[in-house]
């Protein structure tokens, strides 16, 4: 379903009319331009590509100048792709949103055109949404932090307090089973939290208040989509 690209500002609390304290995640989602429209016949499903933010452009070449500008600049392909949508600068983030629901193909597909703007007005308080973000990267971690394994005893001569212990059987099958919980890279993975509810919409400041927590660090990019 259609959604919007935003930036996670952090968490706070708001109070309902009856005094209930509600923990919310605040997502800032400025208007997203529609950069590309995919018809259902071309890819098998209808989708739109939305943009968020802007990239810096390369400086005009000056005769005799050999220095290149510092920092990353948009490529020629990105500039051309944005120009087709009537944008002055390529978006910093591009994400595709499927319009038709796989669970219910009979749902009416909304129509969008290149250049349309998707705003936070797409959502209303009470809407159920799912939010996709990239979890915080925590580097290489052991099994205690990565999986919550209890570890070994702290007394009676034990010296392997946070070790994983035995990882495989002996003669049969004489190998470590695939998928065994082992130390390794933790976090920095795509995660989707479902069944979240929109509590408040601030159209003037382009803010969405979503009950509960979502994956990702402060200022991380998140996708807020209608669930259904």
Q: How is this structure best summarized?
A:
This protein has 228 residues and is mainly beta. The chain has helices at 40-43, 76-84, 143-147, and strands spanning 3-15, 21-28, 32-38, 47-52, 93-98, 117-118, 128-134, 140-141, 184-185, 190-202, 207-211, 221-226.
Description of the structure:
The protein is mainly beta. The strands form 3 sheets. The chain has a 6-stranded antiparallel beta barrel. A hairpin with a 5-residue loop joins strand 1 and strand 2. The chain starts with a strand and ends with a strand. The model has no long low-confidence stretch (mean pLDDT 90).
For the structure shown, list the relevant keywords.
228 residues, mainly beta, six-stranded antiparallel barrel, four-stranded antiparallel beta sheet, 8% helix
Task: Report how far apart the termini are.
Answer: 7 Å
- Strand content is 25-35%
Counting copies of identical and different chains, the oligomeric state is single chain
Q: How do the strands of the widest beta sheet line up side by side?
A: 1-2-11-10-7-12
Mean pLDDT: 90
